[in-house]
From TrEMBL:
The keyword Protein biosynthesis does not apply. PANTHER family: TRANSCRIPTIONAL REGULATOR, MARR (PTHR42756), TRANSCRIPTIONAL REPRESSOR OF EMRAB OPERON (PTHR42756:SF1). This is MarR family transcriptional regulator. SMART domains: HTH_MARR.
Length: 158
């Protein structure tokens, strides 16, 4: 890759992420949730009842911010807190029927946004892009995030 293209890599990745979030937020607002709430909802469903500490780690935000976010979502009937099986000091965040129903909607919205973003990109290019991104995630991941990168590989394959 030419040096000028490498110089642009960080900007391009950042811009794509920002534009994906913006487009997703625009389309997701009609469901009454912010992008942070959607991200939490997706994490709660995928992680199968994570603790608030795990959500903070996954979302890369402070535990107090997760607590407030969960408070708002619990008030809206999106999630509920349940005591941990072995540690009563810890709460698990559990999706409600309302959020499970919305999950399929949010997946469809995300698929539409991704499809729009990938318009004009051929199937071979899409596969190469996904493979390159998985390699980048693995290259930049520490042992602590090995689980995350293996999940990325599984999702990229499907």
């Amino acid at each position: 890759m030419k040096k000028t293209a490498i110089d642009q890599l960080g900007f391009l990745i950042h811009d794509v992420g920002r534009l994906l979030r913006r487009n997703f937020e625009k389309r997701g607002q009609e469901h009454g949730l912010s992008s942070a709430q959607w991200r939490l909802l997706v994490r709660v469903v995928r992680e199968q009842n994570p603790t608030q500490a795990r959500l903070a780690e996954l979302m890369e935000i402070e535990p107090i911010s997760v607590s407030r976010l969960v408070d708002r979502m619990e008030q809206g009937g999106w999630v509920k807190r349940c005591a941990h099986e072995t540690d009563r000091r810890v709460n698990r965040v559990v999706p409600t029927d309302k959020s499970l129903a919305a999950y399929s909607t949010i997946k469809a919205v995300a698929a539409d946004v991704f499809e729009e973003a990938l318009t004009g990109v051929g199937e071979d290019q899409r596969q190469a892009l996904m493979s390159a991104l998985v390699v980048m995630v693995n290259n930049l991941s520490s042992d602590e995030t090995a689980t995350t990168s293996s999940n990325v590989e599984k999702q990229a394959a499907s």
